[in-house]
Design brief:
The protein has 19 helices and 17 strands. The strands form five sheets. A five-stranded antiparallel β-sheet has the order 8-7-9-10-11. A four-stranded parallel β-sheet has the order 3-4-5-6, covered by helices on one side. Strands 14-15-16-17 form a four-stranded mixed β-sheet, covered by helices on one side. The relative contact order is 0.12. The chain has a domain at 406-538. The termini are far apart. The chain has 543 residues and is α/β, with parallel strands linked by helices.
């Protein structure tokens, strides 16, 4: 009853934001004008506002004239001063936290979090959550699993006056909503504090397996859910023993507060039921599971298809585009409209021209530019989207890849969008499900080649075919013709490829939040995977 009451309370608290969002969808231009005026007026007295003459800004055109586009590197000196405790640098609001984030290979970035930014997140999360429960009311009956992954190592900058990171992602909501979400969780958030990764996976498995009435699973990248299922198989006997006894083995010690939060009890009947099912039928573990929310676009489509295969009959809700910096789109009534009431949005086309939302062309692709209440002013987010219709008068967008992810060792100019589409074609041709997929360069400085890492129990693609598809890029074809690039290799990295990928690049990101790209700019992956799990390769047949 407690999760159901908490879910009903959360739904009730978000009904107003859903109505407001419906109004905003019908008048996106007016909504954006109002959002810009509010941000300009609220932060005119800041150092940034004075330097860019916010007092002279009376329109979106004036805002673009006065404030230049920026990247994180442009804001880094100001954020460093915020970290040391200086107020009113980028925002009039106090910065309550600096939230770490990074790309697949970028250095750690610290994003300022303020009360205004919290309200902006809630303006998007509220309509999404209310729509989820209105569309799938059965999900209200039971607890939910909202992605909990091990905490990254503590930030080394002990001199930071502002706290770095959140102890719990529900802090994005704050107040009553945070308490309601916490009450409905199938896995207590304290599990993320467990330093031993295998103990983390065991505790997660125990908490999920005991919840027969699990209603919702929400993860970011679907490969994290696949990783959880793999770990569940690995810890199957141990997890069932904990369910039977209600006690953790001495080899898995946890802190007293976490042990209380876990609330372990003996569930012998549930353990016997699961033992009869076996570890390979996850859909049968939770007959009440209504929705799995995860990324499904761009390269996440590979793992999302495998999740759908393992959970027949469960709705796979494509997640919107949400970053640490801000929200771009949300799932709403079967579409993904711009979260028009949250931030101020601009869109940069391939020729460098800027567009407002009413100037977007269906089918065209743009890079997202955000202005937020957290002090990101005309910030190039780096995400590229494609216009996929409209919800009322507001554009709906699909994520297509990251801007600027280009592998160019020898002039081949492989762009992630192109590689993502190529890998999607290969996955569609596969005779069976495919897990982890990654294309990466290998080079000795004078000659190189690309490696396709392909995790599947079925036949891997022929290297010659992969090479021919890559040659659809004329720059890559020219490098092959010149001999600067050798033929593609295909390597099977083993069943825990996503975990091993995370071990190499995820030191500052939670495991469930990692977004393995279609294309890595790092080399050395062959040696990394081989060193971790042994190597199996398909022989090259196109030398």
């Amino acid at each position: 009853m407690i999760p159901m009451l908490a879910n009903l309370g959360w739904l009730a608290s978000n009904v107003g934001s859903r109505r407001r969002f419906l109004r905003q969808l019908r008048d996106p231009v007016g909504t954006q004008d109002e959002r810009l005026r509010s941000l300009i007026a609220g932060h005119a007295a800041t150092e940034f506002g004075r330097a860019h003459h916010f007092d002279r800004i009376d329109s979106a055109a004036a805002f673009r004239r006065q404030v230049p586009l920026c990247t994180y590197e442009d804001l880094a000196p100001a954020i460093d001063r915020i970290r040391r405790g200086e107020p009113n640098v980028l925002t009039d609001d106090a910065v309550t936290h600096l939230v770490p984030t990074s790309g697949s290979s970028a250095a750690c970035k610290l994003i300022p979090f303020t009360a205004t930014l919290q309200r902006e997140f809630q303006a998007a999360i509220g309509p999404w959550v209310s729509d989820l429960y209105f569309s799938h009311p059965r999900a209200l009956r039971g607890p939910s699993y909202w992605a909990i992954s091990p905490s990254p190592p503590s930030d080394s900058r002990a001199d930071s006056v502002v706290p770095i990171g959140f102890e719990d992602d529900s802090q994005y909501l704050g107040g009553v909503r945070q308490r309601l979400v916490t009450a409905a969780l199938a896995v207590p958030s304290g599990v993320r504090t467990v330093s031993d990764r295998e103990t983390f996976f065991l505790l997660t498995a125990v908490c999920l397996l005991r919840r027969e009435n699990l209603g919702v699973i929400s993860v970011w990248h679907p490969s994290f859910l696949l990783l959880l299922l793999t770990s569940l198989q690995r810890h199957w006997d141990e997890a069932l023993a904990v369910l039977e006894s209600g006690e953790l083995p001495p080899t898995r010690p946890v802190s007293g507060p976490l042990l209380i939060a876990l609330g372990l009890k003996s569930h012998p009947e549930r353990a016997r039921f699961l033992r009869r099912l076996g570890p390979d039928r996850p859909a049968a573990f939770w007959p009440g599971l209504s929705v799995i929310s995860c990324w499904t676009q761009a390269h996440a489509a590979v793992a999302a298809a495998e999740v759908a295969r393992r959970f027949p009959g469960v709705v796979i809700q494509p997640k919107g585009l949400l970053a640490t910096e801000g929200v771009v789109t949300i799932p709403f009534e079967g579409t993904h409209p711009l979260a028009v009431g949250s931030h101020v949005y601009e869109f940069l086309d391939d020729e460098g021209r800027l567009h407002l939302l009413d100037q977007l062309v269906e089918g065209a692709r743009y890079e997202v530019v955000l202005t937020t209440g957290g002090g990101l002013w005309r910030y190039r987010l780096g995400d590229r989207v494609q216009v996929a219709g409209r919800k009322a008068a507001t554009p709906c967008l699909e994520f297509v890849g990251r801007a600027g992810v280009v592998s160019d060792r020898f002039g081949e100019k492989l762009v992630e969008e192109f590689v993502s589409g190529l890998l999607a074609r290969l996955v569609r041709r596969s005779p069976g499900p495919v897990g982890f997929v990654l294309l990466a360069p290998e080079s000795d400085g004078t000659r190189g080649h690309y490696v396709l890492f392909w995790q599947s129990d079925h036949a891997a693609p022929d290297p010659g075919m992969v090479d021919r598809l890559l040659c659809e890029n004329p720059h890559y074809a020219w490098c092959r013709q010149l001999g600067q690039l050798g033929p593609v290799r295909v390597i099977l990295p083993g069943p825990d490829a996503h975990l091993r990928y995370a071990e190499r690049i995820g030191s500052r990101q939670r495991l469930g939040e990692l977004k393995p790209p279609a294309l890595s700019l790092l080399d050395g992956w062959t040696a990394w995977f081989a060193r971790r799990a042994g190597e199996a390769t398909r022989p090259d047949n196109n030398r």
